[in-house]
Amino acid sequence: IFKFLGAISVDLGKDRIKPYLPTILTPLYRELNSTYAEQDPTLKNLAQEIIELLKKLVGLEVFSLAFSSVQKQANQKRAMRKKQRALQTVANPDIAARRKMKRHKNKAETRKRKIEFLRPTYKAKRPRSHALKDLAMVE
């Protein structure tokens, strides 16, 4: 898709690409700022190359305006999701408690996995299943 976006950008030219610039930059920005563990470095390099191509194509000033608007929009979405999560914690405490228990359970599993990796002779006890009953609230 990134190659397609680059090809379309070059094909449309300097003047006709300007209205579509934020739409094109959104996935590129998302790829550059992603913090996933299993991120593909070739994809990140490709996104960077296409951004450089767009910068040369439309000029630094127009590109900077479009890129800053994409950044601003992404930050607003992130803040809104964070706010929604906080509101959901207050509105639905049972769902929030379940999510918190699941997160703590995953954290413990990760810790056990890291210990086993660092010390292969050590075997941590593991739960038998990861069913929903494991996440049930204890009274």
Automatic annotation (TrEMBL):
It comes from the Eukaryota. Residues 1-116 form the U3 small nucleolar RNA-associated protein 20 C-terminal domain. InterPro entries: SSU_processome_comp_20, UTP20_C. One of its GO terms (cellular component) is small-subunit processome. Pfam families: UTP20_C (PF23099). PANTHER family: SMALL SUBUNIT PROCESSOME COMPONENT 20 HOMOLOG (PTHR17695:SF11). This is UTP20 protein. It comes from Geococcyx californianus. The lineage of its organism: Eukaryota, Metazoa, Chordata, Craniata, Vertebrata. The gene is Utp20_0.
